[in-house]
Amino acid sequence: MSSALIEKVQLLKKQRNAVILAHNYQPGEIQDIADYTGDSLGLSVQAAQTDADVIVFCGVLFMAETAAILSPDKTVLLPDKYAGCPMADMINAQQLQELKNEHPDALVVCYVNSTAAVKALSDYCCTSGNALELVNSLPADREVIFVPDKNLGGFIVERAGREMILWPGYCATHMRILASDIVSAREEHPDAWVLAHPECTPDVRALADQLLSTGQMLQFAKTSGVNEFVIATENGILHSLQKQNPDKRFYPVTEKAVCPNMKKISLEKVAWALEDLRYQITVPEPVCTKAKRSLDRMLAVIPK
Ligand code: 13P
Ligand code: SF4
User: Fold this and answer.
1) Which of 117, 139, 185, 222 shows a CA-CA span of 20 to 30 A to 274?
2) HSE-up of 213 (CA within 13 Å, CB side)?
3) Is the pLDDT of residue 32 over 80?
4) Ligand 2 closest atom vs CA 149
């Protein structure tokens, strides 16, 4: 069944001149058929550069919106229209405008996990892969508003050593990872390094060996001499980690770290997306042009 479906997807992909982009949290079978699997920064770069006519975005709505903003002449498809990101919906344009009115001289940095309307009101966008470099590049004498993730924001405050005005948003999936999970995992796997995502809570972050975006985790696992890892982020990434490093061992810190929205994409839905060109994601003007400005600034900061 699934091999027939895979063949169907490959055929439709050719007919449509489509590219399949998948986030590292996608189900394994989706990562396996994707042309590119990566973190939010890598996926944005791919979306901006592809010469395909159709981008099938296997991820959540803000990612497909980002692709539509960066490549407005392409057809961008999200195979499940209900695959959203609850964190991105924790601040809306009106709330951000009110915060800006309270701090009229502040620069606004939004995490890419945000709506297009919030990006349009922001000066800069960032991902977890370049947030630190981006904030460090801002003039030291300017106030900075950071939305919507208080955990990624808190991580930047600690690392950059500068205060920022943080919006109290969070990722419910990363909030399920507890400090006690790290303690138990270390007892069970004493030789393993703990890699955690900056969306984790401060007490989890304090117990990790490395705080990394998903792309940086894959890079670190491959290039470091370490052979055992406890992974404190959404469990979909275990698929790529294990596939790329068959001789190394990876343990999820908890089985509860599963993002239900990332798991809404299936092979069937990818085939239907290509067949019927659905669900098309577009971002209307003037939001598209304004949001593109903050996204272009994000793409100008690619860490080495
Ligand atoms: P990255 O893959 O960019 O680290 O993002 C994590 C995330 O939560 C995406 O929804
Ligand atoms: Fe949003 Fe968290 Fe799911 Fe990423 S893992 S899409 S931040 S809810």
Assistant:
1) 117
2) 21
3) yes
4) 7
- The best mutation among 39, 57, 218 to test binding of ligand 1, ranked by most ligand atoms within 8 Å of the C-beta, falls on 39
User: What burial letters (b/e) apply to 142-155, b meaning 16+ CB within 10 Å?
Assistant: eebbbbbbbbbbbb
Could you tell me the distance, in angstroms and rounded to a whole number, from the CA of residue 240 to the centre of ligand 1? 14
- Rounded mean pLDDT of 277-295? 98
The CATH fold assigned to 88-170+287-301 is Rossmann fold (3.40.50)
pLDDT at 2: 84
Could you state, in order of their start, the residue ranges of all structural domains in the chain?
A: 2-84+262-276, 88-170+287-301, 177-252
| Residue from 21, 113, 114, 240 whose mutation best tests the ligand 1 pocket (most atoms within 8 A of CB) | 113
Question: Ligand 1, closest atom to CA 129?
Answer: 3
With a 6 A CB cut-off, is 113 part of the ligand 1 pocket?
yes
Q: What is the mean pLDDT of the chain?
A: 97
Q: Is 87 in the pocket of ligand 2 (CB under 6 A)?
A: yes
Tell me if the domain spanning 177-252 has CATH number 3.40.50.10800. Answer: yes
Do residues 65 and 44 lie in contact, with contact meaning Cβ atoms separated by under 8 Å? Answer: no
Q: What fold, for 2-84+262-276?
A: Rossmann fold (3.40.50)
pLDDT in tens, 134-162: 999 999 999 999 999 999 999 999 999 99
At 304, the pLDDT band (50, 70, 90 cuts) reads: confident
For residues 71 and 51, give the distance between their C-alpha atoms in angstroms, rounded to a whole number.
10
